[in-house]
Design brief:
Bound molecules: phosphoric acid mono(formamide)ester
Strand content: 5-15%
CATH topology of the largest domain: Rossmann fold
CATH superfamily of the largest domain: Aspartate/ornithine carbamoyltransferase
Strand order of the largest sheet: 7-6-5-8-9
Oligomer: single chain
Structural class: alpha/beta
Number of domains: 2
Shape: globular
Low-confidence stretches: none
Length: 313
Amino acid sequence: MDNRSLVSLAQHSKEKLLYLLDMAKRFEENPNRRLLENKVVATLFFEPSTRTRLSFETAANRLSARIIGFTDPKSSSSAKGETLKDTITMVANYADIIVMRHHLEGAARYAAEISPVPIVNAGDGANQHPSQTMLDLYSIQKTQGTLENLNITLVGDLKYGRTVHSLLTAMRHFNPNFRFISPEELKMPNEYKVFCRQQGIPFEESTVFNERVIADTDILYITRVQSERFTDMLEYERVKNAYTLHNSMLEGTRPNMRILHPLPRVNEISYDVDNNPKAYYFEQAKNGLYAREAILCDVLGITIEDIDNYERK
Ligand code: CP
């Protein structure tokens, strides 16, 4: 694997995560820097996306890179049967970095193993979504002033939701206390519970979502039921409306509590929550630009020192 590829945040130390967050802060102060002039960024999206693709492409644009790619695999030669290996090998002839979303778990790791240019995992099936987690960490740090010792409640589709899997992986460094709230059918997979036990991360599980279980929460992280991952659509119909957060549920919550959601939402957060100051999901998505500028730079070997030197020019 190209050792600059970003496949999972399991590969990063605490120091490296904090370093990337520092880098993201510099981009929030000034997103427009010509650090990637003459670089080509390929965005290969084998699955639909709004935020991830557009924020990576905005990040590349604001850093003066050029962008190639596709948003629909049906418009690429994979529709004619070209393998992922051949697609990656070909695109690496043209681009300096490949940002890829794919429906298969492990696709990003496989691509990183065969690619001569760095791969950034923009989501692989129900597995991991590391760039989402970088913006989630940035949002948590910004709103809480710290990443340490927080009560984090994860709600919704914890089985198929790759954002919660990535967040849990990265939070291992910061002594979190997790609460997992999901329908029985969508519980956090065992491998992540084993991971928590190995890391000494306390967690509790519940199928109940109400005012009481969110009263002591610092970060309420709500997720959509991932319709695209179900093989049994009757099961999806049974669980799709399991939980909805309403504004009235927020009355007794902590002043510092913030509501995060990777988006898109379907019906798990009522529109009456949007004007509550604790609703942070749209700002969270905005933070994706800064986090992804940091990721593109880091993967291409640009350091904070380079950014600071650029600023002094
Ligand atoms: N959060 C997220 O991955 O959104 P998109 O699917 O729109 O990229």
